[in-house]
Fold this sequence. Notes:
Blueprint: E1 2-4, H1 10-20, E2 23-28, E3 31-35, H2 38-47, E4 53-62, H3 66-74, E5 87-95, H4 102-121, E6 126-127, E7 134-141, E8 144-150, H5 172-182, E9 190-192, H6 199-208, H7 229-241, E10 250-254, H8 257-269, E11 276-280, E12 301-304, H9 318-332, E13 337-342, H10 345-348, E14 357-363, E15 366-374, H11 380-386
Parallel strand pairs: 5-6, 5-7, 9-10, 9-12, 10-11, 12-13
Antiparallel strand pairs: 1-3, 1-4, 2-3, 4-8, 7-8, 13-15, 14-15
Helix pairs in contact: 2-7, 3-4, 5-6
The structure holds S-adenosylmethionine.
Amino acid sequence: MVAKTLFGFEEILAEELRALGAEEIEIMTRAVKYKGDKALLYKSNLHLRTAIKILKPLLSFNVGNEDQLYRKVKSIKWDEYFSVAETFAIDGVTSGKVFTHSKYAALKSKDAIVDQFRDKYGERPSVDLDEPDLRINIHIAGIKCTVSLDSSGSSLGKRGYKLQQVYAPLSEVMAAGMILLSGWDKKSDFIDPMCGSGTILIEAALMAQNIPAGSFRHFTFETWKDFDEELWNKIQAAGKAQQIPFTGTLQGYDNNRKAVAIAQANIDRADVADFVAVEQQDFFKSEAPVAEGEEENKGGMIMMNPPYGERLDEDKDMIPFYKEIGTHLKHFYNGWDAWILSGNLQALKFVGLRPSRKIRLYNGPLECKMQKYELYRGSKKAAKQKLPR
Length: 389
Ligand SMILES: C[S@@+](CC[C@H](N)C(=O)[O-])C[C@H]1O[C@@H](n2cnc3c(N)ncnc32)[C@H](O)[C@@H]1O
């Protein structure tokens, strides 16, 4: 099988797969190859937090032109996988000089499948791009072509709990990958002070309680001819049984009222409202929470995805905005570890704190950096005096 992922998450995806019992794990670019049975295919879809698709390869071959592609795709016995009465869709991914247009490779493959059914049954199955019964993936890199079944359907980054989102939300896979890369212990307090639609907080809450990432959605393998419902029910039940209690606090802020309402609706849908609190609050007026009866805050993790300023009119404000983020963290979050993800690499340099880690990631097509700042404890009194009210 092949689990596809985002750039930078390959190693943690391999770790997730190891924990699920995968064998012969091989790390590739934006993907991890592995061996396993049907149960592992189902578990991969249900549990993996950093995979965006699980592919089951059917045939790999070398291809030099479109006729070869047509003949090879036609050589697969497609009626073993679906019938004329069912629908299908093909996703094409190409790189290299032989096939420069992925849509063309997909079209040629579709012709081969349709012709095979027509030759045999006098009828052809229809294409349904949105909700097909069978999703086929054609991957061509140079002359190497692999035809696979896509067992997931829509991206696994669409968990199903986020029906509403703010401008520039993170995908659930991106948020989960960031938390796993940060090494958060799943116990300490966690704050996202610019939480938007709440993706980071919800992913942290699911992870902390060991709730499978795919608990809220369906997968294409459920419509496959060889679907084993009993096995799937068992795997889902085992997933529910592995839930563990979480005793920490997950706190979100956003200064935009609408974003807070959207985050709250998503938190409710993901059923994590008992652990995640969001409120309308300007980060620059916030400070690390101190528990009742304690002198000092007990530290924790702060993770944020501030605006990048990709709208032209915002550009000019970004450098002072990022400078202020650094100053505020330094004065009001002593003892915390802060992670900032930004696609505004220029502005990120102005945070003014020394990053102890820098990780290159991509948010969609945009190159980003996720940087860690360890905020050492200073005088709380001095910090309080500087808090603007
Ligand atoms: C890029 S979005 C975050 C998206 C979020 N990670 C998600 O998955 O939906 C940045 C958010 O920062 C919020 N924001 C900007 N300035 C802020 C401030 N001073 N205090 C709190 N939130 C702020 C914006 O309202 C916006 O929702």
